[in-house]
Design brief:
Blueprint: H1 2-15, H2 20-27, E1 34-43, H3 51-61, E2 65-70, E3 75-81, H4 84-89, E4 94-103, E5 108-117, H5 124-142, E6 147-148
Antiparallel strand pairs: 1-5, 1-6, 2-3, 3-4, 4-5
Helix pairs in contact: 3-5
């Protein structure tokens, strides 16, 4: 049985790299990854010392993962990315990185979003859509409207 398992692992080791994206890379058929950016600075009507935590919770509610948080420095990083299966099987890669900087004691918030992808995923419209979606969710959570820049 152990010998059969070893043979199975050997087959997987040889077959998986030759399938999906690896095979396309070998023949030069994989589209390059592009990135698109969106940036905004929001001004809140009043200072929110808990803004770092509110940003993190808003991101989680949108299905984003908190990849870094620094309450003292006022920064939050959120990410969203494609599944490993889609990356391996159909060679489609997309990822979004959200970077937040809380300023002026929670009165202003800089938001920077970078959307990465290939095979037509993303684009500037998608980066702008992600920005708008986050701002709407944050405004609801704060029960406020924002001034910009």
């Amino acid at each position: 049985m152990a010998n059969l398992a070893r043979k199975g692992m050997l087959v997987l080791t040889l077959v998986v790299p030759l399938s999906g994206c690896t095979a396309l890379r070998m023949i030069g058929g994989l589209s390059h990854i592009e990135d698109f950016r969106s940036r905004d600075v929001l001004t809140l009507p009043e200072s929110r010392p808990d803004l770092v935590d509110i940003v993190a919770e808003t991101g989680k509610s949108l299905g984003l993962r908190v990849s870094a948080i620094d309450r003292e420095g006022g920064t939050v990083m959120l990410t969203a990315s494609s599944s490993v299966v889609s990356e391996i099987v159909i060679c489609k890669f997309n990822r979004a990185d959200y970077a937040f900087q809380v300023m002026e004691g929670g009165r202003r918030l800089e938001i920077r979003i970078t959307a990465w992808g290939n095979l037509g995923s993303g684009g500037q419209d998608e980066a702008d859509r992600m920005m708008a979606e986050f701002k709407v969710a944050l405004a609801k959570r704060l029960d406020t409207r924002f001034g910009t820049k």
